[in-house]
Amino acid sequence: MCREKKEEKKRERERKKKETGEDIEQRAKTGSRGRTKNEERKRRRLLGRL
Predict the structure, then answer these.
(1) What is the pTM of this model?
(2) Where is the composition biased (Basic and acidic residues) (predicted)?
(3) What is the DSSP letter of 34?
(4) How far apart are CA 34 and CA 50, in angstroms?
(5) Per residue of the chain (50 residues), what is the pLDDT tens digit?
(6) I want to staple 39 with a disulfide (CB 3.0 to 4.6 A). Which of 12, 31, 35, 50 is the partner?
C-alpha cells in the first residue's frame, strides 16, 4: 500500500511539473533570489569578510 501512495505522489508531482513548468522540489531547495541554501550560505560568509 505504501508503494502505491509513493507512485501516486510521484505522478502527481510530474503532472504539476508539466502544468506549471517548474519543479516543486527545486523551488523548495532555493531560498531567496533563487539560490540554493549552500550558495546563500557561501555568499553570506563572503559578505562577512569584507
Answers:
(1) 0.35
(2) 1-28
(3) G
(4) 23
(5) 688 888 998 888 788 777 766 665 666 655 556 667 788 788 888 888 76
(6) 35
Report the alpha-carbon distance of residue 20 to residue 47 in Å, rounded. Answer: 35
C-alpha cell at 29: 531547495
Q: How many CB atoms lie under 10 A from the CB of residue 17?
A: 14
The grid coordinates listed for 22 are 517548474
Alpha-carbon gap, residue 2 to 29, rounded angstroms: 25
**Euclidean distance between CA atoms 4 and 1, whole angstroms:** 5
